[in-house]
Amino acid sequence: MTGNTILSQATTPRIDTPEGVAWHLEALISFAPHLAPMLQSVGTVLPRVNPKGFAGMAKVICGQQLSVASAAAIWGRYEALDGGLEPETYLTLSEEEVRATGFSRGKFLALRAVAEAIAAGELDLGHIDGLPAEEAIARLVALKGIGPWTAEVYLLFCAGHPDIFPAGDLALLKAAHHGLGLDARPSIKEMIDIARDFSPHRSAAALLFWRYFAALKNRDSSLL
After folding, report:
1. 105, 106, 112, 117 alpha-carbon torsion, rounded to 10°
2. What is the pLDDT of residues 39-59, one digit of tens each?
3. Third-level CATH fold of 53-158
């Protein structure tokens, strides 16, 4: 798919392909040109794609408050757990089986709440994926154990939602501090306000900020 193909589509592209990311970044920079230096400094920004649906939510919950390496190790064990990737079979697993992979009790219960809601017909992740950002987030955080970061990261990485910015993510806050030339690291509330100006392309902005943070960390970790 080419950029011209995307430009001709009636619907806004998701953020789960390189072409989709490029389309949104071009649109974003057109009305937020102060982000252009960040983009120029990092080059190509690629999507980050996780499984959709229940399996994707499991992976996001797995990664809560963990380093990338720790989350990957635990996810590798959990992914190999028979029945862990479908809501109906997850409900047949004991807490001991799930926690043996490295999940905490809180994560076990959060994922169980998701599985129960899906099994009861109260939650349709496929439907939520297509809702406007604030409505989609509100539907997900209504589930016990699902906070804003989990909801936002699921919608961005698993659903490819084009207008999500996880303002509570520390890397994004650090990237904003340096990339936007702010006097101090913004608070979450301040970051939400800043990111609101990037709508309807907040996901592309988030991917840009993460990529910028990685480049910044590689250049001079003392800045962070």
Report:
1. 160
2. 999 989 999 889 999 999 999
3. Endonuclease III; domain 1 (1.10.340)
